Amino acid sequence: MLPNPTLDQLQVFLTVAETGSFSAASRALNRAQSVISYTIANLEAQLEVALFERSGARQPKLTEAGKAMLEDARRILGDLQVMRARVKSLREGLEAEVSVAISVMVPSRAVVDVLHEFRETFPTVSLNLNVGELGMVMDLVLSGKATIGIGGAVLKQDDSIITERIGHSFMLPVAAPNHPLAQISRPLTLGDVREEVQLVVTDASGRTKGRDFNVLSYKTWRVSDIATKHQLIKAGLGWGGLPASIMHDDLRSGALVHLDLDAYEQGEYAIYSMRQLANPPGPAASWMIDAFRTRLSHCPNQADFHAEMAELRDTAPPLAAE
């Protein structure tokens, strides 16, 4: 029969190894030293290996097998502690899992900061994360696949959804520095962009079917996601709007340039939290909404963003003459 050590035996073994002696382990566990010795002897008999070298030493010393078993014992007992913490949390009403849908309009730095703190604050809560475009966030909340949504557009009012504005974002038209539109040194007109390929994200949710936002070119390439759009614009294959949080570093490095195009609506977009009226968020999901509200309140507005970009242009070194 395969050995089947008990959790108590593993705890005694771990305590002896960590305290350095059978007597110290007996004091730590408030048990007689004879009980400690008997438990270790039984464990060794079950495993059919010696865990401690006892002869010729005042203190027990781990054998090579004992050192290997020590790591397994720590892992098993650690998993037990996780299980106990999870059960305690569930009894107190904490969710076992939070499912969240996040729009690409939400600044990625805010997402990383919130999720990092979420992991530290709720170590027993699993996370199911979806990041997508346009109507996807609302669809996932409506279908119950997401407990909460953090999104940039409420495309259709629905009485079953509770929404709350918690921040803002905005999009700007950009192109690669070698793109023909980037070579024009004056404000762009509709005539300038009409014949240039514009990259547009298609809404997989279907909620914006028949509605185009800031599509100004006669020639469009439609892509499934914002990441693909970003890469194609950087490669010079077209121009288009990107969320400020996504292109911020590219504008700083010169990998992308902002297009001065009045016809492109560049107002701020509200970012909302969304949840079902019939499915109130638990403690962890409620904490996440509040955390996003706090992070997004510190995000720069459009005027600050333009001021930063203008400062970068003013401080950029002049091009060397050929």
TrEMBL record:
Concerning InterPro entries, the annotation shows: LysR_HTH_N, LysR_subst-bd, WH-like_DNA-bd_sf, WH_DNA-bd_sf
Q: Which SUPFAM superfamilies match?
A: Periplasmic binding protein-like II, Winged helix' DNA-binding domain
GO molecular function terms attached to this record: DNA-binding transcription factor activity; transcription cis-regulatory region binding
Keywords for this protein: DNA-binding, Transcription, Transcription regulation
Kindly indicate whether the keyword Zinc belongs to this entry.
no
Question: Which top-rank group of organisms is this from?
Answer: Bacteria
Family named by the database record: Belongs to the LysR transcriptional regulatory family.
Q: Which protein are we looking at?
A: HTH-type transcriptional regulator TtuA
- Source species taxonomy: Bacteria, Pseudomonadati, Pseudomonadota, Alphaproteobacteria, Hyphomicrobiales
